[in-house]
Design goal:
The protein is of the alpha/beta class. The chain is built from 16 helices and 20 strands. The chain has 3 domains: about 10-100, NAD(P)-binding Rossmann-like Domain (Rossmann fold), CATH 3.40.50.720; about 115-315, UDP-N-acetylmuramoyl-L-alanine:D-glutamate ligase (3-Layer(aba) Sandwich); about 325-460, Protein-Tyrosine Phosphatase, Chain A. The strands form 4 sheets. The protein has a 6-stranded parallel β-sheet with strand order 7-8-6-9-10-11, with helices on both faces.
């Protein structure tokens, strides 16, 4: 077995490494391990086309794998690199732990092989947007930012490219999910950014306490030369980050005395000088203002100038699948918010519109109580709700007669129904509040499918 207790002494050359899960992160981890001289074997119980295609791709790189099952060969190994899709209480994990197999996640594994500073962003909402803003802010003459992680580009892929083509002044900006922190040993960002904490993935973690504990593992290895940048407007988060060795760097929409503070018209620097007028910020929405403050605080710690930070705020317009304006057809605006996989994201979305909203909710429930949406729906401009997918019945029951609601089977039917219900001046908003896995492999696929349906309607 590989001794992973000391990162500086980890050597995987000629060691047997098993990769559990052959999605994007698993393939990237396998390629990195193979490049570093390990004898890699991949395993995935799925027989879906994409997994089989990934296995064939690995074979072209002389990496053996199996699909459609986990054979006993997975236990003949010196190290496991496990997909974030496999929970820590899975039977195969328990068996591997029982026989002493070291288990790490892809983020942890990749972090062993780079000394570039890492800015790691997590939270229940706003992660992806904050990562994209941060990446633009940290793209300067002195810092070269590289995005990766949970936003769709595996960290292992980025680290392998760095090994092959090293560059100076590189910093990794990573989006980190709670799943990715279940098997952490040495992972240690220079800056850990926490956007907020709200109930999410409780079907996986079992309780809010466990969910928060997974989020906090990102900061457990940090010392006093690191920084925890956190949303001080979130009382639960403020309490959770206390007691760590890293220095605390709060940001806030309501408090003064921060690196950047907000008044009615401007974001101001700590010295009180205006950084930018709020009306000059390109990305709309109160929640995005908070994301901007978190990204700006982190960028300031990276030595980025106020002028460059302000320029990004003036020009950054958003991220695909997050309140993305797809098209306006017959004076009905279609908005793709497929990345809204929890109720907090839905709440933010419906509060962003002053026009009547036809809201599409559905997918696979992650343990949320949809009744929690009721007060937000009643105080918003939501006029109709269309529920679909695995959670369609739960949503319909929870909504009751709060607003007019219709339950359909799938997203295609939901979009067609929304089109028939919408009147000129309305907004049709896909903000599912659920995981995509009942009908799609990820939220990106769901969002692209929604956009394709809208484009078809526009062409009809």
């Amino acid at each position: 077995m590989i001794n992973i207790s000391n990162r500086e002494k980890i050597d995987i050359r000629d060691k047997k490494v098993t990769v559990i899960g052959l999605g994007m992160s698993g393939v990237a981890a396998a390629l990195l391990a193979n490049h570093l001289g390990a004898r890699v074997f991949g395993s995935d119980p799925s027989s879906e086309f994409q997994i089989s295609d990934n296995a064939l791709y690995l074979l072209h790189h002389h990496i053996a794998s199996e699909t459609g099952l986990h054979s006993d060969k997975i236990y003949d190994t010196d190290l496991w690199i496990i997909s974030p899709g496999v929970p820590k209480d899975a039977d195969i994990v328990k068996k591997a732990q029982k026989i002493g197999v070291p288990i790490v996640g892809e983020i942890e594994f990749a972090s062993w092989f780079t000394d570039a500073p890492i800015v790691a962003v997590t939270g229940s909402n706003g992660k992806t947007t904050t990562v994209y803003i941060l990446s633009e802010m940290c793209q300067s003459e002195y810092v070269q930012s590289i995005m990766g992680g949970n936003m769709g580009i595996p960290f292992s892929e980025r680290v392998l490219k760095e090994i092959i083509n090293p560059k100076q002044n590189r910093v990794f900006i990573l989006e980190i999910s709670s799943f990715q922190m279940e098997f952490v040993q040495h992972f240690c960002p220079k800056i850990a950014v926490y956007t907020n904490l709200s109930p999410d993935h409780l079907d996986r973690h079992g309780s809010m306490d466990e969910y928060v504990n997974m989020k906090l593992k990102m900061a457990k290895n940090m010392r006093d030369d690191g920084y925890i940048v956190f949303n001080a407007d979130d009382p639960q988060l403020t309490l959770a980050v206390e007691g760590h060795d890293a220095q605390l760097a709060p940001f806030s929409m309501m408090r003064t005395g921060m690196t950047y503070s907000l008044d009615s018209n401007h974001i101001n620097t700590l010295s009180g000088n205006p950084l930018i007028a709020v009306d000059d910020i390109a990305l709309p929405g109160k929640h995005n203002l908070s994301n901007m403050l978190g990204a700006a605080t982190s960028s300031n710690l990276m030595g980025i100038s106020d002028d460059h930070i302000a320029q990004v705020m003036k020009t950054f317009t958003g991220v695909e699948h997050r309140l993305e304006n797809v098209a306006t057809i017959n004076d009905v605006t279609y908005i793709n918010d497929s990345k809204a996989t929890n109720l907090d994201s839905v709440t933010v979305a419906i509060q962003s519109f002053k026009k009547p909203v036809v809201l599409i909710l559905g997918g696979r429930n992650k343990g949320a109580d949809f009744r929690l949406l009721l007060p937000h729906i009643k105080s918003s401009h939501v006029r109709d709700i269309i529920s679909y997918g695995d959670a369609g019945g739960q949503i319909s029951t929870a909504i009751g007669d709060a607003v007019r609601s219709v339950q359909v089977t799938d997203l295609n039917s939901a979009v067609r129904t929304a089109q028939s219900l919408a009147a000129p001046g309305d907004v049709v908003l896909l903000s599912p509040g659920c995981a995509s896995f009942d009908q799609f492999s990820n939220f990106e696929e769901r969002g692209k499918y929604f956009k394709s349906l809208v484009v078809e309607m526009g062409a009809a």
